[in-house]
Known about the structure:
By secondary structure, the chain is α+β, with helices and mostly antiparallel strands. It contains 17 helices and twelve strands. It is 49% helix and 9% strand. Strands 1-2-8-5-3 form a five-stranded mixed sheet, with helices on one face. Helix 6 packs antiparallel against helix 8, helix 9 crosses helix 10 and helix 10 packs across helix 12. The longest helix has 29 residues. Protoporphyrin IX containing FE binds next to helix 5, helix 12, helix 13 and helix 17.
Amino acid sequence: MNFPGRLDISAPIEFPDLFGDSFIRNPYPWLDLLRSESPVHHDPVTGLWLVSRHRDVRQVLLAPDLFLPDNAQHAITALPVSVLRVLVRAGFTLPPALANNGTPSHPGLRRVATRFFNAQRVAEAVPVIERIATELLADVKSQLAATGSCDLFTSYAQVLPCRVLMELLGIHGVDPTTLIRWSDASLELFWGRPSPERQLELAELVVAFHQWLTETVRTGWVSSESFMGALSRHRLPDGAPLDAETAVAVCFFVFVAGQSTTGQLIVTALRRALVDPGIWPRTASEAGLAEAWVEETLRREPPVTTWRRVTARPTEVDGNELPAGARILLMLLGSGSDPKVFPDPERMCPNRANVRHHLAFGAGRHRCPGASLARTEAALALRAAARALPDARLSAEAAAPPMLGLLSFRAPLEAAIEQP
Ligand code: HEM
């Protein structure tokens, strides 16, 4: 479907397919349309209520007892019996853990996770991030010298957060490529629109991931300093130790959330810096510019584009009545371009006064505890790349890259560069 040149506001709004190429390539005109004409919009295809104004998205996020997080990880494309059979046979379950947990066990589990990504841990991670960035960029340079081009997504943006997370959480016994494949498969199975054949392939990968986590948690050979070690010492509100299923579900979410999203942010920030006149060399030398650029990228083009909630009881959003059990899709990406909050939203303005008001990391009780790590990694990655590759430019064929286009995750899957 193409975006209508002239809007007929007397006609009912026909919103595009959330998984369609038109929306994934350029969601902004559609999100403008939603915000102005139907800010609480029922999507007949998915059955979701799309909430798009910044004010309303924030209101929903800040009322977690009314707008529950229970559906945050539900598969948006129904899983056929053949796929469910694969999952059930392998004992795959995702009980409430972090993002999908509105029960009293959430605060304690969140504290365990937060301890691994607090300000001190992030400060300690800086030399780790810089070391890994330097190693990866050395390989990028060799590849450029040998072949004349290199894809900064697969060689750099995607790998860096995975290796950083493995070091920070003490993850051993698996290589980064496998962890990335498992993580990407999990995103596609639960947030994508795969065909039934593809769902089966993805389910096999997700099961392998889950089994590896389960074995690691059950065999207890992890170090007590590691994330899994901390979970094994955790006690639930009633004093009981954490059951293995929930420990696995916590790891499952953190291992996916902690790397794929950051890789997506890095590739978007790199691409935008490479094409915006003058920004690339300035991020290499100007203090604070890489950080400011990353923040604007989070506002305008965040990797987590939407997030889900479900109403606990009948309520209203912006005067629209919603029944109990209404499934809501918060348009995080659109909210960062709401002109009522961010004037000239399409312009990348590093150091915008209120840039931190964006909702790329959510808000309230479930707000992303990895935000500081993600920001730090992305800024260091951008600065290191701009310093190591001062003459890099995006190759001509990289102008319209293949895109990741899932319900809640969107990013370019390629950033091929050349260096004359
Ligand atoms: C650019 C990168 C990232 C983005 C855009 C992002 C975004 C988000 C969003 C939108 C949520 C849901 C917030 C809500 O419901 O209010 C979330 C939750 C979460 N994120 Fe992130 N995230 C990123 C990176 C990370 C990293 C690096 C980690 C950990 C290493 C992480 C761990 C988590 C966890 C554990 C939750 C669940 C928190 C809870 O329910 O209490 N994320 N993230």
